[in-house]
Amino acid sequence: MRYLSLDVGNERIGLAVSDESALLVRPLEVVRRGSGPGSFLRIAEIVDELAIGTIVVGLPLLPGGGAGAQVRSTEAYVRGLRKRVGTPIVMWDERNSSSEASDILSHSESSSARRRSRLDAVAAAVILQSYLDAHPGGKPA
User: Fold this and answer.
1) For the domain that residue 43 is a member of, what is the CATH number?
2) Residue partners of 61: CB distance under 8 A and separation at least 6
3) pTM for the complete prediction?
């Protein structure tokens, strides 16, 4: 079963996908988050094309574990997405995923513009890898 991960921001949504064995993860793309249904439709299209079994959405908790404005924004986005996809959606703590993604890109991308354009998708890959590492074989422990 394949997993899709979302790093939901105010303007962009990073996407990453696992292989069918749920062992390897790769950044997929970055989708614009607008006021219309465009991002929902693109994600639903990817879910269908890649036969996604579960969507893992990064939950941007505050450093102490509390919920701030970004958590509420992400939860609102997930409510909208649930109306458009029947695939199970799980929330996963994403604290530090953006800084880890930035560290990864700083070692692999020479252009700062290229790093910025890929940051959200790489953050989604960090989130998904963290989830899969905590659930070997993709199955909840």
Assistant:
1) 3.30.420.140
2) 67, 68, 71, 93, 94, 95
3) 0.85
